[in-house]
Each structure stands twice: as C-alpha cells, then as structure tokens.
Amino acid sequence: MAIEPNDPVTLNNKGLAVYYSGNYSGALPYYDRAIAINPNYTDALVDKAVALGQLGNYSEALPILDKALVLDPNHPVGLNTKGLTLESLGRYSEAIAIFDKLLDLQPNDTTTLIDKAFILHKAGKNDEAITYLDRALTLNPNSTTALNNKGVVLLETGKNDEAITYFDKVLALNPRDVESLNSKGVALANLHNYYEANEYFDKALAIDPGYGPALRSKQKILELSK
C-alpha cells in the first residue's frame, strides 16, 4: 500500500515508528506535518509532546498538551503526559491534580497509581505515596516498578530493613534489576553491612558496568572503609 504523504494518520504513525526507534528529535517533523494538515489531531499533539518530554523540552510540551486536552479533556495519555510534564517542571500540586482526574477516569490503572505515588514522593508526601503504591500492588502484586518504588520510599525515609524486603521481592522476579540491586546495597550500607553492600554494587555493575548510581555507591563505600 502506497504511503500517503498528506495523510495525517500515516504521518503520525511514521513519527511513532521513528520515536520507538529511539530517535525522538527525528519523530518531530512527522508530527509537525500531521498537525499542519490537521491542527486538531489530538493524538499527534500528544505524541509530539511526549517526544519533546523525552528531549527535556518540558516548557515547550506543556502548551501543546493544553491544546490537546481542550480538544479531548479525557485523553488518558495526554493527561498522564501533562502530569509528568508538570512534575518535571517542579509543579507538584498541579501534577497531583491531573493524576487525581486521571484516576477518576481509570481508578484501577496500575501505571497511573504508580505515577501518582512517584509525584507524591517527589513532593515529600511519602505516607500518601505508600498508600498509592499499596493500591497498585493490590492490583498487581508482581509489579516490579511498584515494589521497587515502595522500597525506595522506605529507604529514603530511613526504613532500611523494610526497604530490603521490597528490593528482595523485585530481585526474586528479576535478578538482573540493577536499580534494586544498587538500592539494596545502599540499604545494607546504611545498616553498616558494608561488605554485603559492596557485593550488591558489584552485581549491579556486572550487569551494567556504566551504571552511575552503583559506581557512586561503590566509591562511597571505599571512602568509608579508609
């Protein structure tokens, strides 16, 4: 089937293919062409904003999302993207309000619950973050993202032993999860179990030798042991 260069859907789909190849900036011209043909093409507006967010251009993405949500106020990807964009701009209360609306539309969506918990944690509302992570884990007890994120909240609030139980749950499901390997190492180091902590940093680095958090954690352990 011939590609219609003036068909906005075809152009947007081409943009998505380029985006999913990891070329975020390369996807933008396709979204722009689709929007030029149909300025009210909500999906293209949202997809462009997603690509801009991946490039760190949050302030540019926000008005595009606002336009998309005027056209379709309940667009789930648009709402999610706007919430995460506001979070990236440090506008936590506005981001939380967006996720409240999204949860009204899809109260049992695990990803939305996890994302809201992430923003609550960034806003320093850790008890509320735990509540939303627990809701996500009730729906999907094997969500490694929810398990890891709950471990991180516990870790950052000084509950190291409890945090380790959640990192262990992640590692039982995925032994190669470098974030949980490193975070378990940090929790062990906080408990002064430096030798065991170093083993977990080494495990993370064996999987990803350039993993920055593990490299920094290992360096900190070396400094403490001097």
Describe the model.
Helices cover 77% and strands 0% of the residues. The longest helix is centred in the N-terminal third of the chain and has 14 residues, at 24-37. The model has no long low-confidence stretch (mean pLDDT 95). The chain is built from 13 helices and no strands. The protein is mostly helical. Helix 3 (42-54) runs antiparallel to helix 4 and helix 10 runs antiparallel to helix 11. The chain is elongated and about 65 Å long. It folds into 2 domains: 1-91, Alpha Horseshoe (Serine Threonine Protein Phosphatase 5, Tetratricopeptide repeat); 108-226, Serine Threonine Protein Phosphatase 5, Tetratricopeptide repeat (Alpha Horseshoe), CATH 1.25.40. The chain has helices at residues 8-20, 24-37, 42-54, 58-71, 76-88, 92-105, 110-122, 126-139, 144-156, 160-173, 178-190, 194-207, 212-224.
